[in-house]
Prior knowledge:
It is a single chain. The chain is an all-alpha fold. It has one domain. It has 9 helices and no strands. The longest helix is centred in the middle third of the chain and has 39 residues. The termini are far apart.
Amino acid sequence: MVLAKLTNSSLSSTAPPPQNSTPALQALLRFLDAFNPPRWLQRTVCCLVLGGQSFWRIARGKVHWKNTVDQLLLVGPRSLGVALLTASFVGMVFTIQFVREFARMGLTRSVGGVLGLALSRELTPVVTAIIMAGRVGSAFAAELGTMAVSEQTDSLRVLGTDPTDYLVVPRVLACMVAGPVLNLLCFCMGMAASTLLAEAVYDVTANVILDSAARVRS
């Protein structure tokens, strides 16, 4: 009886929808009620919202520095070997593709400039981004997914800690700091591997390559 009374009172206290709303507003409400966005759109919006929250917290200085240093160790030194190895092979393959043709046409003094431009503008940023997305991103996704499944993120909320501040912001900041450094080191490794292969196989000396790269830079 008590449950029935409570149910009836709650139903009677619920305000009915407004009857004097305009037809345009009613049509908009019906559209929003029936709208079912695709999965990719939902994920894109969620990623944009989460990224905006992360950048806003970084701009306000709400950063867990100890966790950020721990993530920098994962993004930087632990990914350095794979990044340098990949960049060296990319540089050597690119050298094989065009240095032989340049040597046949007598354009060996332009080899360094082409190498420097190709590696700095296209190859090493792409290689660095792929490595960070493949190695670091997959590790972050597995770790955060495990924490979500085991309800550790809910425990953080119960303790009064925002999971975005404690888990997401340090990882985003670590990638922002370590990404340019990895890119620079990959560029140096790619240039070194290209220079070594060009001098050993195609008799293009390192001085010629470095002088050409310096001229293009200037």
